[in-house]
Amino acid sequence: xxxxxxxxELRHAPENQLVFVDGYGHAVHSGYHLTELKAASLDxxxxxxxxxxxxxxxxxxxxxxxxxxxxxxxxxxxxxxDKVRCMIPLNLDxxxxxxxxxxxxxxxTYDVRSITHDEDVTRVLLQTPETTCKARDxxxxxxxxxAERETCCSAVAQSCC
Length: 161
Description:
Structural class: alpha/beta
Largest sheet: 6 strands, mixed
Distance between the termini: 37 Å
Shape: globular
Number of strands: 6
Mean pLDDT: 89
Strand content: 25-35%
Number of helices: 5
Strand order of the largest sheet: 1-6-5-4-3-2
Protein backbone atom coordinates (compact mmCIF):
# COMPACT_ATOMS: atom_id res chain seq x y z
CA UNK A 1 0.00 0.00 0.00
CA UNK A 2 1.24 3.48 -0.79
CA UNK A 3 1.73 6.07 1.94
CA UNK A 4 -0.93 8.40 0.51
CA UNK A 5 -3.51 5.55 0.44
CA UNK A 6 -2.71 4.64 4.05
CA UNK A 7 -3.04 8.23 5.27
CA UNK A 8 -6.24 8.75 3.28
CA GLU A 9 -7.79 5.68 4.92
CA LEU A 10 -6.90 6.96 8.40
CA ARG A 11 -8.48 10.34 7.61
CA HIS A 12 -11.83 8.55 6.94
CA ALA A 13 -12.21 7.73 10.65
CA PRO A 14 -9.87 9.95 12.69
CA GLU A 15 -11.49 9.21 16.07
CA ASN A 16 -11.15 5.44 15.71
CA GLN A 17 -8.65 3.47 17.71
CA LEU A 18 -5.78 2.42 15.44
CA VAL A 19 -5.04 -1.30 15.83
CA PHE A 20 -2.28 -3.09 13.90
CA VAL A 21 -2.95 -6.84 13.44
CA ASP A 22 -1.46 -9.81 11.62
CA GLY A 23 -3.23 -12.51 9.63
CA TYR A 24 -3.52 -14.70 12.75
CA GLY A 25 -5.43 -12.06 14.70
CA HIS A 26 -2.52 -11.02 16.93
CA ALA A 27 -2.56 -7.30 17.65
CA VAL A 28 0.23 -4.92 18.54
CA HIS A 29 -0.28 -4.27 22.26
CA SER A 30 -2.42 -1.36 23.34
CA GLY A 31 -0.36 1.55 24.59
CA TYR A 32 2.09 1.32 21.68
CA HIS A 33 4.00 4.43 20.64
CA LEU A 34 4.78 5.66 17.17
CA THR A 35 8.47 6.06 17.90
CA GLU A 36 9.83 6.93 14.49
CA LEU A 37 8.86 7.72 10.92
CA LYS A 38 11.54 6.98 8.35
CA ALA A 39 11.89 8.16 4.77
CA ALA A 40 14.01 5.35 3.38
CA SER A 41 15.74 5.42 0.00
CA LEU A 42 17.02 2.06 -1.14
CA ASP A 43 19.70 1.52 -3.75
CA UNK A 44 20.30 -2.14 -4.52
CA UNK A 45 21.91 -4.43 -7.06
CA UNK A 46 20.14 -7.74 -7.62
CA UNK A 47 21.79 -11.06 -8.46
CA UNK A 48 21.28 -10.37 -12.17
CA UNK A 49 23.55 -7.31 -11.91
CA UNK A 50 20.76 -4.73 -12.32
CA UNK A 51 20.66 -1.66 -10.10
CA UNK A 52 17.32 -0.88 -8.45
CA UNK A 53 16.07 2.19 -6.58
CA UNK A 54 12.90 2.83 -4.61
CA UNK A 55 11.63 4.67 -1.57
CA UNK A 56 9.63 3.50 1.43
CA UNK A 57 7.94 5.18 4.37
CA UNK A 58 8.61 3.15 7.50
CA UNK A 59 6.48 3.51 10.62
CA UNK A 60 8.24 2.18 13.72
CA UNK A 61 6.06 1.06 16.62
CA UNK A 62 7.20 0.30 20.17
CA UNK A 63 5.46 -0.82 23.35
CA UNK A 64 6.90 0.51 26.63
CA UNK A 65 7.35 -1.68 29.72
CA UNK A 66 4.21 -0.23 31.33
CA UNK A 67 1.89 0.57 28.41
CA UNK A 68 -1.47 2.33 28.60
CA UNK A 69 -4.59 0.27 28.05
CA UNK A 70 -5.73 2.42 25.14
CA UNK A 71 -4.79 2.24 21.51
CA UNK A 72 -3.59 5.34 19.71
CA UNK A 73 -6.31 7.14 17.81
CA UNK A 74 -5.99 7.62 14.08
CA UNK A 75 -6.10 11.40 14.67
CA UNK A 76 -3.07 11.22 17.00
CA UNK A 77 -1.19 9.15 14.43
CA UNK A 78 -2.11 11.68 11.71
CA UNK A 79 -1.01 14.61 13.89
CA UNK A 80 2.42 12.98 14.33
CA UNK A 81 2.60 12.09 10.64
CA ASP A 82 1.71 15.63 9.52
CA LYS A 83 4.32 17.16 11.86
CA VAL A 84 7.06 14.78 10.68
CA ARG A 85 6.11 15.35 7.05
CA CYS A 86 7.05 19.01 7.53
CA MET A 87 10.46 17.95 8.86
CA ILE A 88 11.62 15.21 6.47
CA PRO A 89 10.83 14.49 2.81
CA LEU A 90 8.27 11.66 2.99
CA ASN A 91 7.33 10.43 -0.48
CA LEU A 92 3.57 9.93 -0.46
CA ASP A 93 3.82 7.60 -3.48
CA UNK A 94 6.25 5.31 -1.63
CA UNK A 95 5.15 2.02 -0.12
CA UNK A 96 4.37 2.24 3.59
CA UNK A 97 5.74 -0.39 5.92
CA UNK A 98 5.46 -1.02 9.67
CA UNK A 99 8.48 -2.01 11.74
CA UNK A 100 7.62 -3.94 14.89
CA UNK A 101 8.34 -7.03 16.93
CA UNK A 102 7.31 -8.67 20.22
CA UNK A 103 6.35 -12.11 21.54
CA UNK A 104 3.54 -12.35 18.95
CA UNK A 105 5.25 -10.65 16.01
CA UNK A 106 8.60 -11.71 14.57
CA UNK A 107 10.78 -8.57 14.46
CA UNK A 108 10.37 -7.34 10.89
CA THR A 109 9.29 -4.53 8.64
CA TYR A 110 5.79 -5.56 7.57
CA ASP A 111 3.84 -4.66 4.45
CA VAL A 112 0.41 -3.07 4.95
CA ARG A 113 -2.01 -5.44 3.26
CA SER A 114 -5.31 -3.66 3.97
CA ILE A 115 -7.21 -1.33 6.27
CA THR A 116 -10.73 -1.88 7.57
CA HIS A 117 -12.99 0.34 9.64
CA ASP A 118 -15.48 -0.84 12.26
CA GLU A 119 -17.64 1.30 14.50
CA ASP A 120 -14.77 2.68 16.59
CA VAL A 121 -11.71 0.72 15.42
CA THR A 122 -9.52 1.01 12.34
CA ARG A 123 -7.56 -2.21 11.76
CA VAL A 124 -4.36 -2.25 9.76
CA LEU A 125 -3.60 -5.76 8.51
CA LEU A 126 0.14 -6.40 8.41
CA GLN A 127 1.72 -8.99 6.16
CA THR A 128 5.18 -10.50 6.29
CA PRO A 129 7.16 -9.23 3.31
CA GLU A 130 7.91 -11.70 0.56
CA THR A 131 11.35 -12.31 -0.86
CA THR A 132 11.85 -12.76 -4.58
CA CYS A 133 14.64 -12.95 -7.12
CA LYS A 134 14.26 -9.89 -9.36
CA ALA A 135 16.55 -11.34 -12.03
CA ARG A 136 14.46 -14.52 -12.20
CA ASP A 137 11.26 -12.48 -12.31
CA UNK A 138 12.59 -10.45 -15.25
CA UNK A 139 13.70 -13.63 -17.04
CA UNK A 140 10.33 -15.30 -16.46
CA UNK A 141 8.65 -12.40 -18.21
CA UNK A 142 10.95 -12.43 -21.22
CA UNK A 143 12.42 -15.93 -21.49
CA UNK A 144 10.88 -19.18 -22.70
CA UNK A 145 13.69 -21.49 -21.66
CA UNK A 146 13.57 -23.17 -18.21
CA ALA A 147 17.37 -23.46 -18.30
CA GLU A 148 17.71 -19.69 -18.79
CA ARG A 149 15.34 -19.03 -15.89
CA GLU A 150 17.35 -21.29 -13.58
CA THR A 151 20.67 -19.56 -14.34
CA CYS A 152 19.51 -16.02 -13.58
CA CYS A 153 22.04 -15.52 -10.78
CA SER A 154 25.11 -16.98 -12.44
CA ALA A 155 26.13 -13.82 -14.34
CA VAL A 156 26.75 -11.82 -11.18
CA ALA A 157 28.21 -14.73 -9.22
CA GLN A 158 30.75 -15.49 -11.94
CA SER A 159 31.77 -11.88 -12.52
CA CYS A 160 32.00 -10.86 -8.88
CA CYS A 161 35.35 -9.58 -7.63
